[in-house]
Design a protein that fits this description.
The chain is an alpha+beta fold. About 25% of the residues lie in helices and about 30% in strands. The longest helix is centred in the C-terminal third of the chain and has 19 residues. The structure holds zinc ion.
């Protein structure tokens, strides 16, 4: 991992001055964070029973019977928290300020009511799926400027916000590899706010831009609670832990509070539910680049690209939210292997190499003129079907034709509408499925399944 501070100079991460020691199940035993040091004691449920700081004194965390932390010390102070039946924090109190939170039936936080002496602010949150797109607030009866977050439309599988809009202000975001917001840029590309983080997300910046809340992990840094509000859990950067249990229970790991297995440099979390360690993707890339993979089929694809004088697409590991293992970006001629799909499991090196084969077939086909960007015409859909059939066939030579066809159908639905087949049928009815079936039938009839990747496409426009 490259020290973040060395890249831009403006951000400060005191890597050399930060050290955390853990017990066997990942509870902190001690921590050194620049001039602060802490010693931690945990019980058998992996809940801290005391945290003693050289500068902060002793803090005694408390938990309820469901394992929710009810006494929490965050970046904004010490809070007593009450939870609802779904283990979501609904009332935070620090003695002077009360913060109430309300959730919709899918678990997204829809409102936050902050009451402090002489000040009352009501925040409302609006989502597109699970992405926060707008926040409006009324302060002491006066509406504040709404804040909008725009998520990159070109990277439909990315979970990173592209920019923040607040009144006439527009700030573009830059990110690091674990999707932490790294800078805000103005329209002219000037850095208006550098961001910096300690390893577990403690902010080490004072940007002066308070309207943007998206920061660590491209999630909502809540200025009231002092926690990072992921869609389903709140993360306390101060101790590098969630304030509630992993809702998946102990199937994932024995310690239900730990954040991405205490490896925030190599891992990221999506929505407070899924933590990944993503070295396998980089490992796969390294072996593919070095040609050290023993997979001759993969080597053959690279050779084919070279022989046909096709530009080798840049390949990178990315963070995806759609249910895909990777994708070929036709416009950019680039391949993204998805490290963390919301629905995907952890993937090993050969899974990534398998996906890479599939996407390289698309690259070869695109180079051979098989533009698969047209979802509106019969011929376009058939070309898409053709390249998907070839890609799955090449990726999994042992698959039966039915399996190849079904997967191709899902890919077409995903590529054309960003959704898998099942949900497309729910939205568009069976007629949509027939369209895709017709395209696949046409492609099979034209011999696409038997063709080599990169072979010229049949003319699907020709009338019979
Ligand atoms: Zn595909």
């Amino acid at each position: 991992m490259i020290g973040k501070s060395s890249i831009l100079g403006t951000n400060k991460v005191f890597l050399s001055c930060i050290d955390h020691a853990y017990d066997a199940v990942g509870n902190r035993v001690s921590a050194t964070e620049t001039t602060n040091s802490y010693s931690y004691t945990a019980n058998a449920l992996n809940q801290y029973t005391s945290i003693i700081g050289n500068n902060d004194g002793t803090f005694i965390p408390e938990y309820d019977d469901d394992g929710n932390q009810t006494m929490v010390k965050t970046e904004t102070g010490v809070w007593r928290i009450a939870y609802n039946g779904e283990n979501r924090p609904v009332a935070w109190s620090n003695g002077t300020t009360v913060v109430e939170m309300a959730y919709d039936d899918t678990g997204r936080r829809r409102a936050k009511h902050v009451v402090a002496p002489g000040a009352e602010v009501l925040h409302s949150f609006l989502y597109d799926g699970y992405l926060l797109v707008a926040e409006s607030a009324v302060s002491n009866g006066v509406p504040l400027t709404p804040i909008n977050y725009v998520w990159d439309p070109a990277e439909r599988t990315a979970t990173r916000a592209l920019c923040t809009l607040s009144g006439t202000n527009l700030w573009f975001h830059t990110h690091d590899l674990t999707k932490n917001v790294w800078e805000l840029l103005d329209r002219a590309g000037n850095i208006v706010a550098p961001y910096g983080y300690a390893p577990f997300g403690v902010s080490s910046f004072d940007s002066g831009v308070t309207d943007n809340r998206i920061g660590w992990s491209s999630e909502y840094a809540d200025p009231d609670s002092g926690c990072v509000s992921y869609r389903y859990r709140d993360y306390n950067v101060r101790i590098g832990e969630w304030i509630t249990h992993d809702p998946m229970g102990e199937t994932t790991a024995p310690n239900l509070y730990r954040y991405v297995k205490n490896s925030p440099f190599a891992s990221l979390d999506i929505m407070g539910l899924y933590g990944w360690r993503d070295d396998n993707c980089e490992e796969a890339l390294k072996s593919a680049r070095a040609g050290s993979t023993r997979d001759s089929r993969l080597g053959a694809l690279f050779n084919d690209l070279e022989e046909r004088r096709c530009p080798i697409p840049p390949i990178s590991c990315g963070c995806c939210t759609a249910r895909v293992g990777g994708y070929y970006d036709h416009g950019k001629n680039s391949i993204i292997l998805c490290k963390a799909g919301i629905f995907s499991k952890e993937r090993n090196v050969s899974d990534y190499l398998s996906t890479l084969k599939h996407e390289l077939v698309h690259a070869l086909d695109a180079c051979g003129g098989g533009g698969d960007t047209d979802c509106s015409s019969k011929a376009g859909l058939a070309r898409k079907a053709c390249t998907e059939l070839r890609a799955y066939k090449y990726q999994h030579p042992g698959w039966k034709e039915d399996t190849v066809r079904n997967n191709a159908a899902d890919s077409i639905a995903e590529a054309c509408f960003g959704k898998e087949m099942k949900s497309q049928i729910a939205v568009h009815g069976k007629g949509y499925q027939f369209k895709v079936e017709i395209a696949i039938n046409a492609a099979v009839a034209a011999g696409c399944l038997g063709q080599r990747p990169g072979d010229p496409f049949p003319d699907f426009n020709r009338r019979k």
